[in-house]
Structures are given as C-alpha cells and as structure tokens.
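Hi V.,

Quick status before I head out on leave. The structure for the redesign project is tokenized and pasted below; the design run finished overnight.
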C-alpha cells in the first residue's frame, strides 16, 4: 500500500462506495435469501461481462435529509434504490460496440424498490444517454412505484417528472427488455409495460396499482399475489417469456439481446429432408408447427414470445445460418390456424418489433382466414385484425412467405404482408391450396341455387363433392404458380435455402427508409426535392444554427422549409461525409454517391447553396457573370416575365453592362441552349451592349 492510498479523501470515498455493496448490508441480503431471490447487484453481475460494469450515481441518497441524518441515509438508501450503469453483454460473441448495454435495476431492499426523487433524476440522466447513444436497456423492475415520503424537494405531486415519457420515447431507437421477479406495481409496472419484451419469473405479480392503492380506492382488500399473478399476465399477453426464477430470467435476457447484436459465425441445423414428411396425408388434419420451425432454423435458436397469448399464431425469434430474424406461423391446433383478435394483435406488435430493429420476417402461412362469427366480432375483431395490414404497410424489412398448406382469404393476405406479391417472395409447398375463402364455404355459396334445386339428397351430395373437387384442383399450388399468383412451388427440403437466399438478397430497410444516418447538410430557405436518394437528410437553418433530421421514402418529396430570404442567402457548410458536391457553374449539383449508402441523390428545383468546409468560398472572377462564382439567390422565373437572354459568358463587356447584374437560370425556351442546359438571363434596366 502506497502513501497515496491513505489519503483521507480516498478513504472516505472507499467507505461510501463500500456502503452500497452487499457485503456492507447483511440484513438486506438475508431478507432476499428468505424469499429465495438474489440481490440486485448479484443479478447485474450475472448479466454483464466480468469487469465491464461502471455505475452511475452510486453515491445518491434518498431526498429525506430533513427527516434523517446523512449517516442514516447512507445505511438505509444506498444509490436511492436504483443501480444504474453501462457494461457489455455477450462480449465473447460480438464486438464491443454491439455488446454495450445499459442496466437499470431497482433495489427492493431499499424502501421496497420505490421510485424516489433522486432515483428519478438518475433515471432521467441514464435515459438521456440511452437516447443519445442508442444503448440497449435491461430493466429490473421489481418495486412498489412512487415514494411519497421524500421531503427535500418543494413539490406537491411530482407529476412533472419526464422519466416515463423519456423511456417510452426510446421505442424503436433502443432495444428494451424488462425483467421482473417478485412484486412490481405502479410506476415500476409502467416502465415495465413500455419495454419491448417482458421476462417474468414464476413468483412475479404485476399490476398498475398495489394493495394499498386498491384498498384506498375502495376496491376491496387483496394480497399482492392476488393483484396480477403470473398465470394471468401470461394469458393476457403482458408477459412475453415465463421462466422459473431470476437466474433463468438473466440467461433469457442475454439470449434475447443476442438477436439484436449481430450475426453468429457458427451454426448447425437439422436434416431438412424430414420436412417432406412433416405434413399429414389428410388436408383436414392438424399438425404441430413448432417442430417444423425448429427444423428449419438453426439448432437451438428459436425463442418463442407470448406463447400463452394469441395461440392460433406463433411468434418467435430465430436464426438462419447465424442471421437473426422474426418468424410468424399459424398453429393449426388452435382454431385450425384462423386468426382471431388476440393473434392479430400479437402478430402486428411482433412485426413492428422486427421492423424497428431491422430483423427480416419469415411467415409460415397455413390459415383458413380470419376468425368469424358473433363471438369473434364481440372481441372488436374488425379493428384488431386490421392492425396486421397497418403494420405490414409500414414494413421496411424484407418479408419472406412460405405457404405450408392453406392460404385462404384475407387471413392469408395478412400473413403475406397485404397481398401475395408484397413479400420478397411467396412460395408454397406442394401441399398448398388457395382460394378467396374456404373451399367448402365457397362451393356452398356459389352453388346455392343449384343445390337447393336438387331434391335428391344423394344427388345433391354428389354435386357438392364434384364442385369441391374441381375447386380444390383449381386452387392447387402448382396451378397458382402457373398463373404467377405465387412465385414458386418448392420442395420442402429446399425451404431453408430459399429463406437464407432471401435474407442475403434483400437487406433490411430495402423497402423504405435506409437504416444508416446519412448526414447531408442542405441549405434551408430553398425548396428542394430529393428523389431516389437517401432516406435521411439533415436540414440546417443557416441563421439559427438548428438542425433537424427529416425522413423520406425513396420516391417521396422533401418537406419544404420556409425561411426568410436572408437565411437563404447565407451559405451553409456540408458535413465531411456528405454526398452533395459543390455546385457547378449553372447552379446545379453533380450526382455524387452518398458515402453511407452508395446511392446517387438527384436534386431538382431551386439550386442549393452548399460549399465544402475545407474549400474557401469562391468569388466571381473579373469579367465573369456573378452566377458563375456563386449560386443565384432565386429560382426559375415565369417565362412570360422573362427579358432578353443573356449574351455568351465569354463577353466581359456585356457582362458588365447595366446598373444591375442579378443573374438567374432561365426556364424560357429562348434562354435554353442546345442539349437542355439553361442560359443565364440578366435582370435589370441595363442593356446588353
């Protein structure tokens, strides 16, 4: 030990930090052991890689210094009940950038895991970092909600805290996983509900209000375990993954995060020829979909979500040759694969999750359509099943569809992203059968008059069977492929190869906004249109210095940014990696490729003021029109108001003539040169000599 180790400030710091550790709190650890649970710091140590966790706000104390001394608060409120920091998860499989993870863990041994004023302040700080740097978040949400006895701040209800909004705003920006073991009520449950996926242990009970709030509202007296037990919360879809305990929950969190961290280099799969015998001989017989999915995907890579909710539909994360993707599949053991309200909500939410983080979606379709009937309509079926079309319409990731057997009606269209040509490919096994509705119902509806007119029951049955056989032959997969309504009929053993080829040929975000952030700086105040270019453009106000990111479809028009004329006359600098070059002499821009995506943005409309940060501003040379040195401040003018065209640019005397030398590109046919390049028309009272 050196002399520096004995410095009083270091001794004090070590004492304060030691007070937050489990070794300094044996009574709190004993209480956790009594309930069969681990401490918060034990869960964090199990989650992150050894030595990678750095803690933020470890010295925070509860805002109760008016009621207790600092020494008492150090013992009773370490870190104010929430341990927050940044570390790495799965660093052995992925690089440092992909493995980085933020951990937010409420400590139930500190005031029952309630949310105090300092805890909210710490949480707001961490959420700001997560939003800025796109950090995935793992939330240990055990706790009782808001803490009413923090007295240091002058507040009444403390309803102005931005924590819940900030956490919800991370949707689609950073992966958020919630873990709960034990009791989770009120504010803690609100944060948990904002997570993309919730993993809960068997001893969990989750509710938006605890027993005290329920009793205070005059709603009766109940125990915490009666509020929202795990059986209830898995059947209604609140919990995505149910596990035995905390250790299994942490292991599941690592596995879930790996799907969003990148591609694995090693993989294995089952024998694909077994899929040729996966379908039963009878077309009316149910079969198990999960063994088919496990055979198709990499061995041990399937992670099913919300298994006990929306049972007619299976949603799972999986890998094909190490590439992560999402899978939706119909389960014929429930409603014969028909999609009800819960299944539609389950599918729509899952598609949004995959789309937000760039995971391709594989659809294994075998459905007779949407569920129908008075009981089904009582569940608001119309609204719920339509969510599948809404979610599919905004997908930017490739959708790969394989029809295993039935593809009927609107339900089959929903499983294929809206229609059969919406996916990157729609292929079918030889057992596929198709129709606008179920074949039996279609025949009875189409031949109602003929069947009613046939008096003999035997003859009526023969007529029905003959029409049904014709409809079945007409709806076979081979006939569908011959009419190009589907892309191909494939050997079931080739299904995995088709999926892998589709995932490698159609990169994520190919249908919409590109995933990377393309940092173009465009001069505002001028109306610009971006066509077939990058999906993200940064517009910077030249005078106010503020920036905004604008999102486009690849074929849509740029939003117009109205500013005053003096803002338009101020040149703006482009970022070093911008794909927009310096303007040419006629005020147009060359089609330079973007450094992020390689595309060539085409700019039309008013010429844009862009100059490089490295190059000095060019000034007009003597004897040269001003527009050759810089872009004219106005756009094309109405040809009816056009004055005589400008003389050739090589005539210095004509260029200097007249009291006003304001030049602009002309749209008038008289001012257009051969080859479509516009001349420069002068504006002013002077005559061109």
């Amino acid at each position: 030990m050196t002399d520096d180790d004995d410095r009083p400030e270091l001794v004090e710091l070590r004492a304060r930090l030691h007070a937050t550790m489990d070794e300094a709190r044996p009574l709190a650890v004993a209480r956790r052991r009594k309930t069969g649970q681990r401490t918060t710091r034990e869960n964090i140590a199990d989650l992150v890689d050894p030595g990678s966790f750095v803690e933020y706000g470890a010295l925070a104390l509860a805002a109760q210094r008016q009621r207790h001394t600092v020494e008492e608060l150090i013992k009773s409120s370490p870190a104010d009940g929430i341990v927050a920091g940044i570390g790495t998860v799965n660093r052995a499989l992925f690089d440092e950038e992909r493995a980085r993870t933020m951990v937010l863990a409420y400590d139930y041994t500190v005031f029952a895991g309630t949310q105090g004023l300092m805890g909210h302040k710490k949480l707001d700080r961490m959420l700001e970092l997560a939003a800025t740097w796109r950090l995935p978040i793992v939330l240990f949400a055990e706790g009782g909600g808001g803490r009413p006895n923090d007295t240091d701040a002058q507040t009444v209800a403390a309803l102005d805290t931005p924590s819940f909004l900030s956490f919800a705003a991370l949707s689609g920006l950073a992966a958020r996983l919630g873990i709960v073991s034990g009791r989770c009520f009120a504010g803690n449950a609100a944060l948990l509900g904002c997570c993309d996926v919730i993993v809960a242990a068997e001893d969990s009970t989750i509710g938006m209000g605890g027993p005290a709030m329920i009793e205070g509202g005059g709603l009766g007296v109940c125990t915490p375990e009666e509020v929202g037990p795990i059986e209830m919360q898995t059947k209604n879809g609140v919990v995505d993954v149910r596990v035995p305990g905390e250790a299994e929950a942490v292991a599941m969190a690592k596995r879930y995060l790996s799907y969003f961290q990148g591609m694995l280099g090693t993989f294995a799969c089952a024998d694909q020829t077994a899929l040729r015998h996966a379908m039963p001989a009878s077309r009316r017989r149910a079969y198990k979909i999960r063994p088919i999915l496990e055979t198709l995907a990499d061995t041990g890579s399937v992670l099913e979500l919300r298994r006990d909710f929306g049972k007619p539909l299976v949603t799972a994360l999986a890998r094909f040759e190490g590439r992560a993707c999402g899978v939706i599949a119909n389960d014929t053991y429930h409603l014969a694969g028909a999609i009800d309200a819960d299944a539609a909500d389950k599918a729509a939410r899952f598609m949004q999750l995959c789309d937000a983080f760039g995971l391709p979606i594989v659809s294994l379709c075998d459905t007779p359509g949407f569920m129908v009937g008075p009981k089904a309509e009582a569940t608001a079926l119309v609204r719920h099943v339509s969510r599948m079309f809404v979610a599919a319409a905004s997908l930017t990731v490739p959708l790969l569809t394989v029809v295993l057997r039935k593809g009927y009606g609107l339900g089959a269209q929903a499983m294929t992203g809206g229609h059969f040509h919406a996916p990157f490919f729609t292929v079918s096994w030889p057992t596929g059968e198709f129709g606008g509705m179920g074949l039996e119902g279609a025949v009875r509806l189409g031949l109602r008059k003929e069947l009613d007119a046939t008096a003999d029951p035997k003859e009526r049955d023969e007529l029905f069977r003959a029409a049904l056989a014709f409809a079945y032959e007409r709806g076979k997969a081979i006939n569908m492929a011959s009419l190009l309504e589907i892309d191909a009929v494939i050997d079931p053993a080739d299904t995995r190869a088709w999926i892998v080829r589709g995932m490698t040929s159609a990169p994520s975000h190919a249908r919409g906004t590109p995933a990377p952030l393309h940092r173009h700086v465009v001069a505002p105040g001028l109306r610009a249109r971006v066509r077939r270019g990058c999906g993200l453009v940064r517009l910077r106000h030249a005078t106010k210095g503020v920036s905004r990111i604008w999102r486009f479809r690849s074929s849509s028009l740029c939003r117009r940014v109205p500013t005053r004329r003096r803002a338009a006359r101020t040149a703006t600098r482009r970022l070093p990696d911008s794909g927009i070059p310096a303007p040419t002499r006629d005020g147009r821009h060359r089609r330079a490729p973007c450094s992020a995506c390689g595309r060539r943005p085409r700019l039309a409309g008013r010429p844009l003021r862009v100059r490089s940060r490295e190059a000095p501003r060019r000034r007009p040379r003597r004897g040269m029109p001003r527009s050759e040195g810089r872009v004219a401040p106005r756009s094309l003018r109405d040809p009816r108001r056009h004055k005589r065209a400008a003389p050739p640019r090589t005539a210095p005397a004509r260029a200097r003539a007249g009291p006003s030398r304001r030049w602009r590109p002309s749209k008038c046919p008289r001012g257009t040169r051969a080859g479509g390049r516009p001349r420069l028309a002068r504006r002013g009272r002077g005559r061109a000599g």
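Above is the designed sequence. Residues 510-591, 602-615, 624-639, 651-689 have pLDDT under 50 and may be disordered.

G. will cover questions while I'm gone.

Best,
W.
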